[in-house]
Each structure stands twice: as structure tokens, then as C-alpha cells.
Amino acid sequence: MSAIQTAQLMDGTGLAKRVVEEAAARAGEISRRAGTSPCLATVLVGEDPASVTYVRMKRARSAKAGIRSRQIGLPATTTTAELVDSLTALSDDPDVHGILLQHPCGPHIDERAAFEAIAPEKDVDGVTMRSFAAMSFGLPGFVSCTPGGIMRLLDAYDVDLAGKHAVVVGRSAILGKPAGMLLLAEDATVTYCHSRTADLPGIVREADVVVAAVGRPRLIRGEDIKPGAVVIDAGYNRGNVGDVDFDTAVTRARLITPVPGGVGPMTIAVLLAQTVEAAANQLGIPHR
Amino acid sequence: MSAIQTAQLMDGTGLAKRVVEEAAARAGEISRRAGTSPCLATVLVGEDPASVTYVRMKRARSAKAGIRSRQIGLPATTTTAELVDSLTALSDDPDVHGILLQHPCGPHIDERAAFEAIAPEKDVDGVTMRSFAAMSFGLPGFVSCTPGGIMRLLDAYDVDLAGKHAVVVGRSAILGKPAGMLLLAEDATVTYCHSRTADLPGIVREADVVVAAVGRPRLIRGEDIKPGAVVIDAGYNRGNVGDVDFDTAVTRARLITPVPGGVGPMTIAVLLAQTVEAAANQLGIPHR
């Protein structure tokens, strides 16, 4: 028997599988009742190999869940105006229920302008300003997929957030900022840390819940994890390394996500679940 | 000589006066160059005495700054749909440059639906979802007036926020949440506290900057203010009492806003400044 207490691993792979199975069942029901299956449009500018791989993976998972996908591949020379036109056309197309713009799109594209061309009811990736505000104000809408996946993991492991101190490391528009807003909506006390934070270790040591979302390998030291804390590592760096020093953190935390197999698989699962929900809303298929 | 070190007071009355003078000068320039002066529409539902007073004050200050106001008084029985229609008409009216919906509007009104009927370019009170997201993402747009006033105060007193720990007590959509986002944009480490926070005094004790925005008299004890901290009290309670125990806090802080005369006057000043800016944008009068 080991003398070292180890945390329970939060099984994102298993939870994602259940989320996708539910989405698939619902997609089947929609298909039977509406005569058409949910459709996700994936928009890719250029041929960045990592982006091509991500889109291919999302399309393959969609297909397995009974979600059609429509692939829009635009040349690397596409302008912001052309991309906005393409997204506007998809927003207006009644046969498309969800829209995913694979990003980053490249430095010549105004990504914010592109995102804003996505109709809110089709924003299944949760990237529009309206979706962010809805997350922040607790209003109906689609959430950013990775923060949404984090919240589902916390819920699946019965983590009570009310009054707890949640520390979010990272403040990107699609991950850190919305994650903090969703935690705040669950009544956590939320601290946003980032590259300019003066004493990151000192703040992490106070955290009941740590969400690492910055993309810097092992930025968060295991010895700074408070004993019994919940550690969500949304970082994904070269060599399957997260933002948290897992080997030490696992000896102190109560719950921790592995990398890979923690947050990662949840992102696509939430994308698929939201696509199915969008289709149900647009096709007028109420929940059973 | 007193043995007690006292903080410098942050003079919101004086700063607001300067902001309004600048707005008035700019309003005069707009009037000369465009042949029409900036116009703020104030919309009031019902006759709540406090709301009537606020609107009257905003109109009087507007007039002194060379801003016309158009008063829309709607009966207390107005429905959300009627209010939305009224706000939509003002959004479409080229003679109106800014729109202020005095709130709260009463329990039978869906305030969010009403706010969203305000065109973003006329949202000089910074209440729309788009304005909130713009504040959060550092994009152009109008800010919520009270948080905007707080940021101007911090700037006027040369408070360097980068890397500092700012604690925001309160999480309302028009005050606490946007204040935190604006502080984060200035590279502060930001903690949101609220009624469910487990150890508010413990977190306040770590704060380099405290923003109290909750409306509970003397919720924040003076002895919890870290020596040398900056204290912004946006609370305003009966009897001219803020959310911070001023008498003790002033012996520990480096800078502190009095109540009244601190944050309060800044709110209207920012409203007027943003109305003039909106008019300049809509009338095509570039800044000198």
C-alpha cells in the first residue's frame, strides 16, 4: 500500500462518451420526427495541418453521432469580407443548424468580425459576443465548448462550487474568461490569474478549484495545490503535458483531470450536444 | 500632528466636473460643425420617485453640458413589447444619439429584452450584452457608466493596475461584472466576491485594490483593508453610507473614495461623455 494519497481521476473520456451517446439518441429522435438530421457546418480557412486534423476529427465524431456535416473549405487567401459572407449565408441557410469556424484563421482575418457573422441560435461553439454575455449573465444560449465541458465534469463529480474559491489561470475569450463566468454563475468566488499576475503560486495555494487554461507546460506547481483541491487542467502542450505538474498535484488534490483524457474529450462532446440542441430548437422538436 | 496616517481622498466631484467640461466643449464643437447638438433620450417607465429624480438630474446635467434630452415617459402599465417598440424607434431615429433606459423598470418588464432593443452605437449607458462583451474583450464600445467612472478615477490618480490584485465585491451585470472585466483588461489579477463568498475578510485582506459594489452598508470592515491599498466604494446606502467602513479604512488605505463625492458623480459624467462621443460618431465629427 502506498503512503501517498492520490486524487481520484476525472474521466473525461468516459463522460464525453456518455454525452455523445445522449446526443446521438436525441439526433436519432430528431431525424425520425423532423425527417432531417442535425447538420453542423464546419468552416476552415486555409490548410493548416493541425486545423485540418481537428476539423476531420469533428466531422468523424459528428457522423458517428448521426449529425451531418457540411464542410466549407476556403482558400488561405480568403478575406474577412468573404469569410463573413460565407458565415452569413450559413446563418441564413435553414438546412444548417450549427456553425463551427475553425480558428485561428490566420493573421489577415478579423476573427471577431467573422465570429459575429454566426447567428446566435447556430453558435454551437459559443464564440459570439452575445454567447459570452449570455454565459456571464446566466441567460439561455450556447456556451464555449471547453468551459462547458469543464462545468459538466465538475457536475458529474458532484463538485459543490457555491462559496468555494475557484482560480482560473488564463483569460482568453473562449476559455479562461467564459470559464470564470460560468463558475461565478455557480456561486464560486472566482479569481482570474494570467501572465501579469504577481504571485500566482500564492493565489493557487488558496484555491479550492483550479482551472488551468493557459497553454504553458507545468506552469502550476504540484506543491502549490491545496490538499483536497479540485484540479482541472485544460492546458494541452507538446508531449501530452498539461499546464499543471500532474505527478505532484495528484498526490495533493482530491479530484484531478488527466492530460490527455480529462478536459480534452469534453470539448467535442459539448460541440455535438449543442449542435443537436440547436437542431431541436430550430426544427421545433421539444425535449421529451 | 495626528499619529494616524490617513489616505488621500479620490475626488470624484472634481474629476467629474472636468470630464463634463470636456464633454461640454466637445458638444459645442459638434453643434457648430454639424448644426445639431448631441441628443440623449431618457426613457422612464412609471413614476417611481427615486427614478423620476435620477432622470431629472441627468436631464439637468445634460442641458448644462449642451446636450439636448428627449424625455420619454411611459405609464407604469407599459408592457415589455411596448417598451421594446419605443426603444427600437429611438434606435432608428437619427436625431437621437444616445439612449438611457432608467432602471429598474418594475417586475413586469423583461429588462434584458428592453436593453437589447438599444442600438449598440447608442448604448451610452453600456447595458447591452454586446457592450458587456466588448468591455470584456477590450473591443471598442461604450462601457457601463459606473465601472467606466471607476476606471477614470483610478487613471486620474495614476493607480498602476498591472499585476495588482483587485477584489471586486459584487457581481451585478451593470457594476460588479463589468468593473472586474475592465480591471482585468488593465492586467490586474481580479477576484469576484459576492454574498456566497466563504471568507470575504480574508480575500479583502489580500487586495491591492478593493472595489465595493454591493449596496450593503459597511459590509467591508476597515481593519481588513491592507495598508496602502486603494479603496473604491461604489456602494451607496441610506444615510450617505458606503459599502466600506470609511472611518477605519481611511487610516489604512493609500487612496480612498469618499461617499458621497467619490464614485457617485462619475456615473453621470461618463454618461454625458459617452453621449457626446456617440453623437460625434453618428454625425461624423472626428476628434480634433
UniProtKB/TrEMBL annotation, chains A, B:
Belongs to the tetrahydrofolate dehydrogenase/cyclohydrolase family. Residues 144-282 form the Tetrahydrofolate dehydrogenase/cyclohydrolase NAD(P)-binding domain. This is Bifunctional protein FolD. Residues 10-125 form the Tetrahydrofolate dehydrogenase/cyclohydrolase catalytic domain. Its EC number is 1.5.1.5, 3.5.4.9. The keyword Secreted does not apply. The lineage of its organism: Bacteria, Bacillati, Actinomycetota, Actinomycetes, Kitasatosporales. One of its GO terms (cellular component) is cytosol. Homodimer. NADP(+) binds at G170, R171, S172. PROSITE patterns: THF_DHG_CYH_2 (PS00767). One of its GO terms (molecular function) is methylenetetrahydrofolate dehydrogenase (NADP+) activity. It comes from Streptomyces hainanensis. Catalyzes the oxidation of 5,10-methylenetetrahydrofolate to 5,10-methenyltetrahydrofolate and then the hydrolysis of 5,10-methenyltetrahydrofolate to 10-formyltetrahydrofolate. Keywords: Amino-acid biosynthesis, Histidine biosynthesis, Hydrolase, Methionine biosynthesis, Multifunctional enzyme, NADP, One-carbon metabolism, Oxidoreductase, Purine biosynthesis. It comes from the Bacteria. GO terms for biological process: L-histidine biosynthetic process; methionine biosynthetic process; purine nucleotide biosynthetic process; tetrahydrofolate interconversion. Pathway: One-carbon metabolism; tetrahydrofolate interconversion. It catalyses: (6R)-5,10-methylene-5,6,7,8-tetrahydrofolate + NADP(+) = (6R)-5,10-methenyltetrahydrofolate + NADPH; (6R)-5,10-methenyltetrahydrofolate + H2O = (6R)-10-formyltetrahydrofolate + H(+).
